[in-house]
Structure formats: C-alpha cells, structure tokens
Specification:
Elements (H helix, E strand, L loop, with lengths): L1 H19 L3 H5 L8 H16 L6 E5 L5 E6 L6 H20 L4 H10 L3 H5 L10 E6 L2 E9 L4 H15 L6
Antiparallel strand pairs: 1-2, 1-4, 3-4
C-alpha cells in the first residue's frame, strides 16, 4: 500500500511538473542564495582530490539552481564521458530535488526504480538516475549542486561529492 501511495505521489508531481512547462529556473529558484565561485572551485578541487587519492580519475561539475553550469573540472586521466555524467548528476539534483524532496542523485535513482513514473522522469533532458550528485544548501535552501563522474560506481562518486561539500560546509552561511 505504501509503495502504491508513493508511486501515485510521484506520478502526480510529474504531471504537475510536465504540465507547468516553465523554465527550470522558474520552478526551483525560490531564494536569492548563490554559491560563490571561490567556494565552488574549492569544493570541486576537494572532490577531485578525494577520488584521486583512491585512484579514481573523475570530473566534477557544479551547477546553480537553474541547472546552469557554474564550474567544471576534468581531473587528470578522466575520460570524456565523465564530464557529461558529472553535469547531469548535479543538474538532476537542482532541478528535480526540490520538486521530489531528494538531496542526492542516489536518492533519485531509488525513486526512479520504485516508481511507475520512472521511465517518464528519466526521459527528461539531462536527467541521470545515478548516484554522484549532492545538493549544496544554505540552511534549507538548495543554492547549487555538485556532481562527480568517473569513480567505479556511483556510490564512490557520491562519496567524493560529499567530500567536496564537507570542505566548504562551514562557510555556506545560515
């Protein structure tokens, strides 16, 4: 019963999302919070460093609340595909996270797997249901997201993204 109720909620939210057909910025940007570029750079560098320390060549993307790329760093020896996967993971978190109530792309992957609306959700442009994207918050407000691609498994990408977030967490404000 609980799974059916959750599936219905997801389907209803998807219907509202698709019917509203407004730019992503209008749907998810509620506050004026923005991640300063200096902190985005620092978080990206730490995410790359955390993965490289494990021998995982990755790329990192930071996007603003409209899903616009703010910063992308391709680590040494990372493959070309990691650029797009890191961007799409971060994009998924900032554009759908506020609508569906998740803070990581790993949580979104679980939602997609459980929901009959999952195929419709992943058909949207730049949406990627793989772990590796993490919301960056100031208080309760999402102000950006960081995505990592290239480690062997999304859980490892997400751990590196969390390391990047941890590096700047105390300086995001109230």
């Amino acid at each position: 019963m609980r799974a059916a109720a959750m599936a219905l909620r997801v389907a209803l939210r998807l219907a509202v999302l698709l019917l509203s057909a407004q730019p992503a910025m209008a749907q998810v940007r509620h506050g004026e919070g923005q991640l300063p570029l200096a902190l985005a750079i620092e978080a990206a560098q730490e995410a790359v460093r955390a993965c490289e320390a494990q021998g995982w060549p990755v790329s990192v993307s930071v996007v603003d609340t409209a899903g616009v790329l703010r910063l992308q760093a391709r680590g040494d020896h990372s493959t070309i595909h990691t650029e797009q996967s890191s961007f799409r993971k971060a994009y998924t978190v900032v554009t759908l996270g506020p609508v569906f109530g998740f803070a990581t792309s790993g949580e979104f992957a679980g939602l997609v797997a459980r929901s009959p609306a999952g195929p419709a959700l992943v058909s949207l442009p730049n949406i990627l249901p793989l772990a590796g994207g993490v919301a960056i918050r100031r208080g309760e407000e999402i102000i950006a997201a960081i995505g990592v691609g290239g480690a062997p498994g999304g859980e490892r990408d997400e751990a590196c993204a969390r390391a990047g977030l941890a590096r700047i967490a105390g300086r995001l404000g109230p």
